[in-house]
Write a structure and sequence with these properties.
The protein has 360 residues and is an alpha+beta fold. It is built from eight helices and 16 strands. The strands form six sheets. It has a four-stranded antiparallel beta sheet with strand order 12-9-15-16. The protein has a four-stranded antiparallel beta sheet with strand order 11-10-13-14. Strand 1 and strand 2 form a beta hairpin. The chain is globular and about 65 Å long.
C-alpha cells in the first residue's frame, strides 16, 4: 500500500503554507455523520465495458459475501473511485467536445423510472447543488474546476482547449505508452538474436471478450484466463505464472430483477502474455493456432472455490484482434482498426463462442 494511505496525518499545501492535517485517505469523519435515510440503498454495477470496471476487483467480496473495502479499508475503495474520476477527467480533456447525449434509460434509477430519456440536464439525485433543493447535473459538473480541484496531468489554466488536449495526450503517453516502456520483453526471433518489444509498440492487439447475462449471476465470481493449462488447485489461480488476467463479476440482487435481460461485458488484453511467452510475431497465422490450443479460462467463486462453467450458461467468450498503427509523436495516440473475430479459437470450449453465436 502507498504510504499516503497508511499515515494518520499528511502534509498539504494550504493557503497560508504547508499544514499537517488528518489524512482523509487513512480515516474519514463525516461532519455530521449522515443517517441511512439520507441516501438511497446502495446498488448499481457496470453495464458494458466501463471505465469503472477495474474497481470491481477492489470491491470483490470475500467468502462471506461482504465487499473487501467494507471490511478492510473504506479509503481504499474511495481511492479506486477517485481514480475513476481522474480517468474520466483525462478522457474529457482529450475529447473536450464530447458530452452527454440524450438516451433512453431502459434500466432506470432509484428516482427515475425505466424507459425515460436522460441527458446532460437530468438531475443527479440525491446530490444537491445548493440550499434551494436543486440537484447537480452532468452539464454542471463537466469540469473539476466546479469543485475547486484538478489533477496533475490536467493543467487547464493558461492554455486553450486544443493545447490542453495536446498536453494531456503527451502526459498520458509518458505515463502509459512511452517508447521503450517498462516492462520490456526480450523475445528471441531466430534463436540467436533478440528483439526488445512492448505490448503498446505492436501492430496488432489481441483481446478476449466476455459476455454474461445478469440473470445468471447468483453470486460474485472471477473469470480467470490462462495461457496454458491452469493449476488444479483454484486457490493458486490468482498467482499462477500462466494467468493472463482476471475479470470480476459482481452485481446487486436489488437491481437484478429489473435488469436481468441486460448483459455485462468485459475484455482482457492478451498481448503482454503472448510477448512474455516469447511470441514476437503476433500475426493471426501464428497466434490463432497458439490460442486455440493454449487459451483456457476458469470460474472462481468466493472462498477460492471453483465454479462449473455450466452454472453460468450465458457465458460467452470470444477472441478478437485489432490492427494498430503505433503513434509517431509524443502527443499522438495510436490508430486502431476494426475488430476481427476469430471464432475458431473458442469453438467447442465450455463458455466459448460457437459458429452461430452472436458476438455483437
Amino acid at each position: 500500500m502507498p504510504p499516503e494511505v497508511n499515515q494518520p496525518t499528511i502534509y498539504i499545501n494550504a493557503p497560508n503554507g504547508t499544514s499537517n492535517v488528518r489524512n482523509p485517505l487513512y480515516t474519514y469523519a463525516f461532519h455530521p455523520l449522515p443517517s441511512s435515510s439520507d441516501f438511497p440503498p446502495l446498488g448499481g454495477s457496470n453495464y458494458g465495458t466501463s471505465i469503472n470496471a477495474f474497481h470491481n476487483t477492489v470491491r470483490y467480496p470475500d467468502a462471506n459475501g461482504q465487499s473487501q473495502p467494507d471490511l478492510v479499508n473504506k479509503q481504499l475503495q474511495a481511492n479506486a473511485a477517485s481514480n475513476v474520476d481522474r480517468l474520466f477527467a483525462l478522457w474529457q480533456a482529450v475529447y473536450p467536445e464530447a458530452n452527454v447525449s440524450p438516451q433512453i434509460n431502459d434500466v432506470g434509477t432509484y428516482t427515475n423510472d425505466p424507459g425515460k430519456s436522460e441527458d446532460g440536464n437530468t438531475p443527479l439525485t440525491p446530490f444537491h447543488s445548493d440550499d434551494s433543493g436543486n440537484f447537480w447535473t452532468s452539464s454542471k459538473v463537466w469540469s473539476t474546476k466546479t469543485f475547486g480541484y484538478a489533477y496533475p496531468e490536467i493543467i487547464d489554466w493558461g492554455v486553450n482547449r486544443s493545447q490542453l488536449t495536446t498536453n494531456v495526450k503527451a502526459r498520458l503517453n509518458a505515463l502509459y505508452n512511452p517508447t521503450g516502456s517498462i516492462p520490456q520483453r526480450s523475445v528471441s526471433t531466430d534463436g540467436s538474436s533478440s528483439l526488445t518489444l512492448t505490448p503498446n509498440s505492436m501492430n496488432v492487439q489481441w483481446f478476449a471478450n466476455i459476455r454474461i447475462n445478469r440473470s445468471d449471476i447468483a453470486s460474485p465470481f472471477f473469470v480467470h484466463f490462462f495461457l496454458g493449462s491452469p493449476p488444479v488447485d483454484p486457490a493458486t489461480w490468482s498467482f499462477d505464472p500462466s494467468l493472463i488476467g482476471s475479470h470480476s463479476v459482481i452485481d446487486t440482487p436489488l437491481l437484478r430483477s429489473r435488469i436481468s435481460a441486460f448483459p455485462m461485458y468485459g475484455q482482457i488484453p492478451l498481448n503482454h502474455a503472448l510477448l512474455e511467452a516469447g511470441h514476437a510475431d503476433l500475426a493471426p497465422e501464428k497466434i490463432v493456432p497458439l490460442l486455440t490450443s493454449g487459451l483456457n479460462w476458469r470460474l472462481q467463486g468466493t472462498n477460492d472455490s471453483s465454479l462449473n462453467i455450466s452454472a453460468v450458461p450465458s457465458l460467452k467468450i470470444h477472441v478478437v484482434a485489432q490492427a494498430v498503427k503505433p503513434r509517431v509523436a509524443e502527443d499522438e495516440f495510436p490508430e486502431y482498426g476494426q475488430f476481427v473475430v476469430y471464432r475458431e479459437i473458442t469453438l467447442g470450449k465450455d463458455g466459448g463462442v460457437g459458429s452461430g453465436d452472436d458476438v455483437d
